Amino acid sequence: MRRRWGIIWLILLLMASPCCQEAGAGQVKRLLIYYGYPSLFNGSSGLVEAVKLFDKYDIVILGGDLADPNHEEHEAARRLIRMSRAEFYGYVDAAQPIEKVCSLIKAWADMGVSGIMLDDFGFDYLEPMLGSRGAARLHQARAIECVRRHGLKLAMNFWSPEDVFEDVDGISLDLRGASVLVEHAIYGFGEKTEEYVEHFHSMLGYARRAGVGLWCLTSTSANSSHMNRLIGYDALTILHPNCDAYAIQEDYAEDSNVFYAFSQERQSIPYIRGANLVLWGKLNLSWYLSTLRRLREIGFDHLML
Known about the structure:
The chain is built from twelve helices and ten strands. By secondary structure, the protein is of the alpha/beta class. Helix 12 (about 285-295) links the parallel strand 9 (about 275) and strand 10. It is flat, with a radius of gyration of 20 Å. The strands form two sheets. It has an eight-stranded parallel barrel. It has a two-stranded parallel ribbon with strand order 9-10. Helix 4 runs parallel beside helix 6 (about 135-150).
């Protein structure tokens, strides 16, 4: 306990020193995961208005069967992809027959997206469907081949980093220029703190060694922009200096047309006065210092350790 308090005071002392008041890492990209109707996004009266709202994001993942030509918002989604400044990815559930996966990838490519998000890409979804890890690895490789065939960027969502980054039966995956979505990079009170922290840093280590980008997703939620600011919701998403992109994820946002977007940092500051920071033995001091610098930069003046 005495050693732990010594570390706390050391960190706080370093936080106040000139070395820790310098500018932090560059701004990471803003990510939106949206499965609703594009033309109705956040109460828009039409596509032109919606495009202005989508333009606030750098990366947008679209889903909800919008790639189906029979979907009533198919043409609106196609026009959105052409009109918005954002980079669009099409959502594909990887835990289905490879023919279906490749067909969906082609449909999204025909719409003009820049990339594909392969969800359910881990062995926890693929092995029960295919019967073995070897078969699951071949399925992963074929899905990635389909993405590459259409000249698209690759993003993936899975839980265990070993399922993607390690070889299986001598087969490794082509992860050039890929990104991975890390769920629970930011977590709420009462959640599995140590498990999520360990998972994040395990995924980070694998991703950096492989040269893969990291997209960080919150697990907390708030039901209004005001509450987002009040609890420092979106400010929490910029604490990780290792994230290449970050997203606020509402429980209902994926299936609705309303999504509470990021507040501007300066607008958030008056509402944010404190934060919890986990002191966990496996995390090194440099990580804490970089996090403390970030907290200071965005206006935190109290810290609970």
